[in-house]
Write a structure and sequence with these properties.
The chain is 69% helix and 1% strand. By secondary structure, the protein is mainly α.
Length: 336
């Protein structure tokens, strides 16, 4: 609600870069918390107590300070609120007549959920397939990186320390890729590049070579998989309008895609150590699938934009209020 379409992904990246950072320092923090013995709770329960308490406390603070729309932002003046709403309309392309509507539009939300076009080509394809395949790789990589590194010949303490550099590489990759994505005003090319880098990383992990090459592969995997998640989230958000449909679609996207955690948990099995060929192969296959889906979606978006430029969707203006058409408006152009 506060950022234009092609200013959004860098902000998502700033939020999402916490994922690789938590991977870099979460293990070290957990090691320290696990040494606490107090009040009848020894070692690992304190990891959940301390980290959970901080998360809940921060969530309660956010409820009071995070506004739903520019008009609810108490830290903005009246002029600044008007400017924020005006900015939202600069690249709406006919998607909405009011960038900060206070009305509740339940019917368009329900229509979006039931609409064949939006669910199949945007929600189902991007969420259920692209984002899910990416998250399988992200979750399995984050969960099992210490195990992967320990089986390269390092003890548990060193393995924990050696997980920090690949996650730091993922952190900088998220910042760089999301920044470039906003600059070029494209999500698909970033997705293709990130998937390709991660694929190379998993190939390095699969081939029989030295531990140093395998460890180098973890850097490429981190640099490829971590930026792909915010990229696909921003891709869907850019291609849905108005804001209440965008919120519905994004929520559905996250809900479905996070089911990838169920699959990721079973990709690296004890019986497959030390090579973990099955786990690496599954993730490699998921990334190849994501690469194919991203390519397909880019081609579809280009086709749809050309059709709108030629007037192929102008008939929708006769169906009712043009401001309620959202992403279906003939003037709305999808982000590639």
């Amino acid at each position: 609600m506060f950022y234009r379409r092609h200013e959004l992904l860098f902000r998502i990246g700033m939020f999402y870069c916490a994922a690789p950072l938590s991977g870099a320092f979460g293990g070290l923090l957990a090691t320290g918390l696990a040494q606490i013995r107090h009040g009848g709770y020894n070692r690992w329960p304190w990891i959940f107590i301390v980290e959970g308490a901080v998360t809940v406390a921060y969530g309660l603070v956010v409820i009071w300070f995070l506004p739903a729309t520019p008009s609810h932002a108490t830290f903005l003046t009246k002029v600044e609120k008007e400017a924020a709403v005006h900015r939202m309309g600069l690249d709406a392309h006919g998607a909405s007549t009011n960038g900060d509507s206070q009305r509740q539009h339940h019917r368009p939300q329900l229509k979006f959920l039931c609409d064949y076009h939006s669910v199949r080509w945007h929600t189902h394809r991007i969420i259920s397939e692209e984002h899910t395949t990416d998250l399988i790789s992200i979750y399995s990589f984050s969960l099992f990186l210490p195990s992967i590194i320990s089986n390269l010949g390092y003890n548990s303490v060193k393995a924990q320390l050696f997980t920090v550099p690949p996650n730091v590489a993922g952190f900088f990759a998220v910042i760089l890729c999301t920044f470039l994505s906003d600059k070029i005003k494209g999500r698909g090319p970033i997705m293709l590049g990130c998937c390709s880098i991660a694929i190379i990383g998993y190939i390095m992990l699969l081939i029989k070579t030295t531990p140093l090459v395998h460890y180098g592969g973890t850097f490429l995997v981190a640099a490829g998989v971590f930026p792909s998640s915010p990229a696909v989230m921003g891709w869907l958000a850019n291609n849905l309008a108005p804001h209440y449909v965008r919120a519905t679609g994004t929520g559905l996207q996250i809900a479905i895609a996070n089911c990838a955690a169920f699959i990721a948990t079973f990709t690296y099995l004890e019986k497959d150590k030390p090579a973990y060929t099955t786990g690496h192969s599954i993730n490699l296959g998921m990334l190849v699938l994501s690469l194919a889906l991203s390519t397909t979606h880019i081609l579809y978006v280009k086709w749809e934009n050309r059709k709108r430029e030629k007037g192929g969707r102008d008939y929708r203006l006769d169906e009712g209020d043009g401001g309620m058409l959202g992403y279906k408006h003939p003037s709305f152009r999808y982000t590639i």
